[in-house]
């Protein structure tokens, strides 16, 4: 070891660990040219190298080795830096209206607040409150007008059981279908659209469709006239709200005081 050079007792290639620490120091850019010049041909040998006295050590390959090593480390750090910037840029410019996996996690979390026993069902009135408290695109948001929320629920039209409750999977799939406009048509063509969607699901997931198909897309007989659905409930509420608006408007235009 030559104390006058950069290869010293603490800065050398004697062992794998010491060599790794030296290369890490070079990667930070600290005095790597001096370390490179200390490894070129013509330097004195370490006594432990068991070289004949007077024979020089080192190699001119040190120039190529250290320059390529520094270039590789700089290239790697630059790519890491760019990757971090691009990842943050993508996060900041991400369109929040596009449905993603994190929205599904939010739906599960908020549903659990209304269904603490994990029964997989909640009352349709709780479902409405839940969607109003859930931000778009999966939810409606607390600023969504009641009429617009009613119209979305009418299109979703999930079946309601005897206790007035809706199913978790049915509600989630209906929300995804409404948000992504999957086979969403006018009221007269929705039965045909449901059948087409059922056939599509069967082709994509032939095994899972046997168990989940009726839950994802309820049969038309479950949405028939004798069955209670979310669409029918909120269609009635929408008619009632329109009647109230029209009725009170006529009374106010006639100058008759309104008493509630």
From TrEMBL:
<feature type="domain" description="EF-hand">
    <location>
        <begin position="102"/>
        <end position="137"/>
    </location>
</feature>
<keyword id="KW-0813">Transport</keyword>
<keyword id="KW-0732">Signal</keyword>
<keyword id="KW-1133">Transmembrane helix</keyword>
<dbReference type="InterPro" id="IPR014873">
    <property type="entry name" value="VDCC_a1su_IQ"/>
</dbReference>
<dbReference type="InterPro" id="IPR050599">
    <property type="entry name" value="VDCC_alpha-1_subunit"/>
</dbReference>
<feature type="transmembrane region" description="Helical">
    <location>
        <begin position="61"/>
        <end position="86"/>
    </location>
</feature>
<dbReference type="GO" id="GO:0005891">
    <property type="term" value="C:voltage-gated calcium channel complex"/>
</dbReference>
<dbReference type="GO" id="GO:0098703">
    <property type="term" value="P:calcium ion import across plasma membrane"/>
</dbReference>
<protein>
    <recommendedName>
        <fullName>EF-hand domain-containing protein</fullName>
    </recommendedName>
</protein>
<dbReference type="InterPro" id="IPR011992">
    <property type="entry name" value="EF-hand-dom_pair"/>
</dbReference>
<dbReference type="InterPro" id="IPR031649">
    <property type="entry name" value="GPHH_dom"/>
</dbReference>
<dbReference type="InterPro" id="IPR005821">
    <property type="entry name" value="Ion_trans_dom"/>
</dbReference>
<keyword id="KW-0407">Ion channel</keyword>
<dbReference type="GO" id="GO:0045202">
    <property type="term" value="C:synapse"/>
</dbReference>
<dbReference type="Pfam" id="PF08763">
    <property type="entry name" value="Ca_chan_IQ"/>
</dbReference>
<dbReference type="GO" id="GO:0008331">
    <property type="term" value="F:high voltage-gated calcium channel activity"/>
</dbReference>
<dbReference type="GO" id="GO:0007268">
    <property type="term" value="P:chemical synaptic transmission"/>
</dbReference>
<keyword id="KW-0851">Voltage-gated channel</keyword>
<dbReference type="Pfam" id="PF16905">
    <property type="entry name" value="GPHH"/>
</dbReference>
<keyword id="KW-0106">Calcium</keyword>
<dbReference type="GO" id="GO:0005509">
    <property type="term" value="F:calcium ion binding"/>
</dbReference>
<feature type="signal peptide">
    <location>
        <begin position="1"/>
        <end position="31"/>
    </location>
</feature>
<keyword id="KW-0472">Membrane</keyword>
<keyword id="KW-0325">Glycoprotein</keyword>
<keyword id="KW-0406">Ion transport</keyword>
<keyword id="KW-0677">Repeat</keyword>
<keyword id="KW-0109">Calcium transport</keyword>
<keyword id="KW-0107">Calcium channel</keyword>
<keyword id="KW-0812">Transmembrane</keyword>
<dbReference type="Pfam" id="PF00520">
    <property type="entry name" value="Ion_trans"/>
</dbReference>
<dbReference type="InterPro" id="IPR002048">
    <property type="entry name" value="EF_hand_dom"/>
</dbReference>
